[in-house]
Amino acid sequence: MRAYLALMHMRIPDRLDFAITLAPECESQACVPWSILTLVENAVRHGIDPSETGGQIDVRVRAVDGQLVVEVEDDGVGLAGSSSGLGTGLASLRERLRGHYGEAARLQLESGASGHGAIARLQWPLTSP
Questions:
Q1: What DSSP state is assigned to residue 44?
Q2: Edge-to-edge strand order for the sheet containing 16-22?
Q3: Structural domain range at position 96
Q4: Among 33, 86, 89, 119, which residue's beta carbon has the most beta carbons within 10 A?
């Protein structure tokens, strides 16, 4: 994910900024392969790329009430006119999450503040260290 964002920043340096915040207690947590990258790619492709001015992508990973919570937020064009979050990449991710964590995993997609951008949120139980 870091390498992908760095590469995209090199491709469109004047149109993409990003920040990654990883809580120390989450560094050793297991993650479904490519799950966060799927959300980051969607933020670039559907949020930042179509925006005339580009934007910011923030990736936050934290522990909340025994759950690992991953948020990928962009301030791009937003969800207006999208297909309600049922695209191929997200549908595949939901299936992979279900395969690893059953019904304990969640994937949510919502509009950002004031209708700008989007927030994709993954959540699954923390694993023992």
A1: I
A2: 16-22, 55-64, 67-74, 118-125, 106-111
A3: 2-125
A4: 119
Helix (H, G, I), strand (E, B) or coil at 28: coil
Instruction: Give the whole-angstrom CA distance, residue 97 versus residue 107.
Output: 8
Domain count, the chain: 1
Contacts of 39 (CB under 8 A, 6+ apart): 70, 72, 93, 120, 122
> What pTM does this model have?
0.91
Nearest-5° Cα angle at 88, 48 to 99 = 115
CATH number of the domain to which 24 belongs? 3.30.565.10
Hey, CA dihedral for 57, 72, 80, 86, is it positive or negative?
A: positive
